[in-house]
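Q: Could you fold this chain for me?
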Amino acid sequence: MLIVTPSDLSLASAAPGPASEFAWAHSPDGQQVGDHGVCAASLMPRDEDVVLVLPASALSWHRVSVPKVAPAKLRAVLEGLLEDRVLSDVAELHLALEPGGKPGQTLWVAATDSEPLRAWLRVLDTSGRPVSRIVPSLWPLKRPQGSDLGSSRSRLFDEDVPEPLHWAHAEGEQAWLDSTSVHGVSRLPLREGSDAQAAIAGLGSPDGLPDNGIWLADPAVAGLAERVLARRFQLVSFPAWLVRCAQGDWNLAQFDLSLSVAARRRQRLRRQWQQFRKAPAWRPARWGLAALVAANLVGLNTAAWHERRLLDQQRQAIEQTLRQTFPGVPVVLDAPVQMRRELVRLQQASGQPSRADLEVLLAALDQAAGDAPIGATRLQFRAGALQLSGWQAPPERVQAIAQGLSSSGWRARVDGEQLTLEAAQP
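A: Sure. Below is the predicted structure, expressed as structure tokens.
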């Protein structure tokens, strides 16, 4: 996967453009860092799974009791719950619920400015690296059911993480200590010469546990963090931190920013269609497509008219032949069928055997049976149909005779032990 974040870790800057830089880490297995760097979006590696990491400075966290409502009304309900908790207009915020959160529960809600986030997503999408997931750099830890405060588990790491977890890193020219616990996410600036005890006290939780947890630091600020806070930090490089952020369960791409594969495909097709339909650069293509469609419609209609004309000429020729050969036919409805019927009548009137006579049917049966005896003990002829039953031959033999008659143009069907043979109807 490709994990990216704005290089200055700030979504509050000027609107990003094609030259805006991202810090990125590429992981071949989602566990280890394969390559990393800082560059414009168009220069980053390509990957089908692109994860955008939002820094802690871009997010605020709110613990709210969400009533049970229909999914279509959930966004409006969240806006009402957060209206008095945020300083900005809640309608301009993008909101997301914690993983597995459903209405009717007390949940963590992440909020961030919608327009800057959309601007970064557009930059990545335009560069051919559409985002499939949006994750926070830190999120509130979730306490397992039935556990005490010191046994909460974070999906950020493989091991149990006591409360809280601290991450010292640089953002711009300032060093920060971001901390997460079951109580939320907090930030503390790290400055040279500040009082360590006062700094640690700023991390205190309502349960009075300010001095526990796991302490991690980017090597670039590890020395400063250890001097300010007077403790040892475990070194974790920034690219490795990005990969671990992508391992969490959080996905901020919710509501109108749903970035599933199907949603991204629909959004991309919609944008392409709008560009094709309105962009001046596509005007020649639109005219060309319209001309091609018109030419095809005209050509298809012309071909269809020509085929109908040929069919009408053939039909008129057949009807004319019927009237000339059999002038006694009063009305022509189906010329080929009527012509065959008139031929049968002429054969019967002249005494010549027709395909509906007993002699012709027996001859056809004898030809289909070959040298072997027919083996039928009962015979009945009525209305041009010959029925044979009481077969001494096996059923396979009777079926073979029926198939031979059918292949010769006769109507032969087997019903139990009875074989019915008649001439095919004209």
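A (continued): The CA atoms of residues 168 and 177 lie 4 Å apart.
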